């Protein structure tokens, strides 16, 4: 308060004159200027009430910042004092209801008759100014009045009918805001707020121009921005449990991936939980579920303040009551119905209203009805189809429409009778039937690679050589142990022979001991030789050979295998016989497997027509060989049933004019993708072409009855 008083006291008459000039330039007529002047005075004088009476209005109007004072003041006393105001500012006492002591005020006549205007300032109920304060304020009020008289005659006069004297209630705690903010609260009575101009009425009617939801949201956003004088209006509607931006004023196409759009959607999703209008930022504490997305929204959008208006449609009970009373109005903020949309009014300059005014309520009510009707229209089942049929009938004559109907009915009947071959589409790969995978028998490192991808080999040809340091070390160790044991055995045999050649003077016990040691050593030597044989067998597996005649299959073998460690059981190389028979490895969708299984059970085999990705213009023939008895999940997470089919490569069967091309194994690549059509007997055209629809109805509708 002390800082405000110092600022007011330091303001010169020149600065007041400049400020009055700015207000005159911004106003379109005398009434608008007087409202702006009242907002200016209420800030600079720190008053509780500003009252104005002018010839354009039938009754005085007041701007109230002190709610307590507005309940205590005698309105008749204010009217009398305004009528007796003079060109010179005068201090006065205003009576209050009951036994309370009068409060103090200042009054002055701004202009004389016939376009007379008078103004009064009333001090707050808890403030009794001193004589010095009143003298200072009178001088300043006189300066404002003098400057106003010099410029107000340049403004046109617009007569505005006003009902009973009313007051606009504002928050006294906001009195320290700038004059621009105070002016935004404009001195308008509720009786005058609903009297929209003819242009505004046309704008409100345009909300209901059509029932296209996107177009309705676009009109609401742009027209509301113009009528409410805010910087931007964004319209959001609920979709699948979340609020999505459908339109923003001044923007033809909304980029839903932008950070600002995502931020406003998150804020709206959190704010609608309160189920009431919300002005943000606010001095009241907000739950963290709202405060966090609010902070993020303010950072992303650079908005100073916003007003979030959830639009509640009518509840079922309200609809019944209104139908009985023939009422189509709706209270967007007081209804108990579901939220049909949200309006977000954004202000980049900070001049946002402190509350929800009558204009906002009126616009929100019309927007609620428009969005509710558009949403209901969009949710009509088969709307586009019925509109197309209706348009066609309306543009043609009845006989033509009847003929078209008969033709359509005939086509439907024919499609239910005419039988066609039914096919099921499956995907998979093609590869030679004779295929051998070569795995590592022992752990080791690939030391040498003797083949390349696509090389023809014979059974037993060396493919690659492994190296295992442990086996080599073990073989050397066993060879040394065997040599040592052999030498010991030879020495022991020599000793026994020498003892046998001597007389019987030797000990019999020594001979027995040597015999026992000799037997034990022979046993150890036999065991070592068995281990050596096992090691030799394992070392033979280090040389990997081709298991069959065929072609080596393996991409970038040298880069993938050479000098790289492999473990026992790792796949090394594949060898296929590409000159022999070929087969298809198919994955049949679980939903479509029924007709395939049924056809295979009845006929024992199913004809397959397939195309290879590497030869898309050619069509080949195959026959179903086997179908798995269980489904599995493929890499895409879909349930499939594996099947195998033999490719027909009998050239003699490829007759001239056949639908199939001759299968040439030399043109194929093992593992190439194929798309196959499996013939599953005959069905009606309707059942074959729309089988998915029939299956869906049986599984999700008829199954439950």
UniProtKB/TrEMBL annotation:
Region of interest: Disordered: 166-201, 497-516
Residue ranges of domain Multidrug resistance protein MdtA-like barrel-sandwich hybrid in the record: 437-553
InterPro entries in the cross-refs: GAF, GAF-like_dom_sf, MdtA-like_BSH, MFP_Cation_Efflux
Pfam families in alphabetical order: BSH_RND (PF25917), GAF (PF01590)
Residue intervals of the GAF domain: 213-347
Keywords assigned by UniProt, alphabetized: Lipoprotein, Transport
Phylogenetic lineage: Bacteria, Pseudomonadati, Planctomycetota, Planctomycetia, Pirellulales
Name by which UniProt lists this protein: Periplasmic multidrug efflux lipoprotein
UniProt xrefs under PANTHER family: CATION EFFLUX SYSTEM PROTEIN CUSB (PTHR30097), SLR6042 PROTEIN (PTHR30097:SF4)
Annotated Polar residues bias: 192-201
Coiled-coil region(s): none
Low complexity compositional bias, start-end: 498-512
GO biological process terms, semicolon-separated: copper ion export; plasma membrane copper ion transport
GO cellular component: cell envelope
């Amino acid at each position: 308060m002390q800082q405000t008083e110092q600022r007011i006291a330091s303001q010169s008459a020149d600065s007041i004159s400049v400020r009055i000039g700015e207000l005159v330039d911004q106003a379109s007529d005398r009434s608008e200027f007087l409202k702006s002047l009242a907002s200016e005075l209420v800030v600079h004088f720190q008053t509780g009430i500003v009252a104005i009476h002018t010839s354009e209005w039938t009754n005085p109007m007041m701007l109230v910042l002190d709610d307590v004072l507005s309940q205590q003041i005698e309105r008749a006393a204010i009217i009398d004092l305004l009528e007796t105001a003079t060109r010179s500012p005068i201090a006065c006492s205003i009576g209050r209801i009951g036994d309370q002591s009068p409060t103090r005020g200042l009054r002055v006549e701004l202009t004389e008759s016939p376009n007379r205007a008078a103004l009064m300032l009333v001090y707050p109920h808890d403030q009794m100014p001193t004589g010095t304060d009143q003298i200072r304020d009178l001088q300043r009020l006189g300066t404002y009045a003098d400057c106003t008289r010099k410029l107000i005659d340049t403004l046109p006069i617009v007569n505005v009918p006003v009902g009973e004297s009313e007051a606009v209630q504002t928050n006294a705690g906001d009195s320290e805001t700038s004059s621009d903010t105070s002016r935004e609260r404009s001195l308008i009575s509720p009786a005058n707020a609903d009297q929209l101009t003819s242009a505004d009425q046309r704008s409100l009617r345009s909300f209901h121009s059509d029932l296209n939801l996107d177009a309705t949201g676009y009109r609401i956003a742009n027209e509301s921005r113009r009528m409410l004088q805010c910087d931007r209006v964004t319209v959001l509607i609920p979709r699948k449990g979340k609020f999505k931006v459908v339109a923003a004023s001044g923007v033809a196409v909304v980029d839903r991936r932008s950070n600002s759009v995502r931020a406003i959607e998150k804020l709206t999703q959190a704010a609608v939980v309160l189920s009431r209008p919300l002005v943000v930022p606010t001095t009241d504490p907000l739950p963290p579920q709202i405060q966090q997305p609010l902070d993020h929204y303010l950072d992303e959008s650079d908005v100073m303040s916003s007003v979030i208006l959830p639009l509640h449609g009518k509840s079922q009970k309200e609809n019944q009551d209104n139908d009985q009373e023939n009422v189509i109005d709706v209270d967007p903020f007081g209804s108990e119905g579901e939220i049909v949309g949200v309006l977000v009014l954004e202000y980049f300059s900070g001049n946002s209203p402190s509350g929800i005014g009558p204009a906002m309520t009126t616009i929100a009510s019309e927007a609620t009805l428009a969005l509710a009707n558009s949403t209901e229209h969009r949710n009509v089942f088969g709307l586009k189809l019925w509109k197309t049929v209706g348009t066609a009938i309306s543009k043609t004559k009845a006989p033509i429409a009847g003929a078209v109907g008969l033709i359509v009915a005939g086509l439907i009947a024919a499609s239910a009778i005419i039988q066609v071959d039914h096919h099921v589409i499956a995907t998979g790969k093609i590869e030679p039937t004779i295929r051998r995978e070569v795995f590592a028998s022992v752990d080791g490192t690939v030391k040498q690679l003797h083949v390349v991808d696509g090389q023809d080999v014979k059974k037993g040809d060396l493919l690659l050589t492994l190296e295992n340091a442990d086996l080599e070390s073990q073989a050397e160790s066993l060879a040394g142990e065997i040599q040592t044991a052999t030498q010991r055995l030879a020495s022991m045999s020599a000793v026994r022979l020498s003892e046998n050649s001597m007389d019987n003077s030797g000990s019999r016990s020594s001979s027995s001991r040597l015999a026992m040691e000799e037997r034990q050593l022979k046993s150890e030597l036999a065991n070592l030789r068995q281990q050596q044989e096992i090691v030799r067998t394992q070392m033979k597996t280090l040389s990997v050979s081709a298991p069959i005649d065929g072609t080596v299959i393996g991409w970038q073998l040298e880069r993938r295998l050479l000098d790289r460690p492999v473990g026992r059981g790792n796949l090394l190389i594949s060898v296929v016989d590409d000159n022999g028979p070929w087969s298809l490895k198919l994955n049949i969708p679980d939903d479509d497997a029924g007709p395939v299984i049924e056809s295979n059970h009845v006929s024992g085999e199913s004809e397959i027509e397939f195309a290879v990705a590497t030869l898309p213009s050619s069509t080949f023939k195959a026959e179903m060989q086997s179908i798995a008895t269980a489904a599995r999940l493929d890499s895409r997470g879909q349930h499939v049933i594996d099947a195998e089919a033999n490719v027909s490569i009998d050239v003699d069967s490829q007759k001239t004019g056949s639908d199939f091309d001759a299968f040439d194994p030399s043109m194929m690549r093992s593992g190439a993708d194929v798309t196959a059509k499996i013939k599953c007997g005959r069905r009606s055209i309707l059942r074959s072409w729309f089988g998915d629809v029939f299956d869906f109805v049986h599984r999700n509708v008829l199954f439950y009855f």
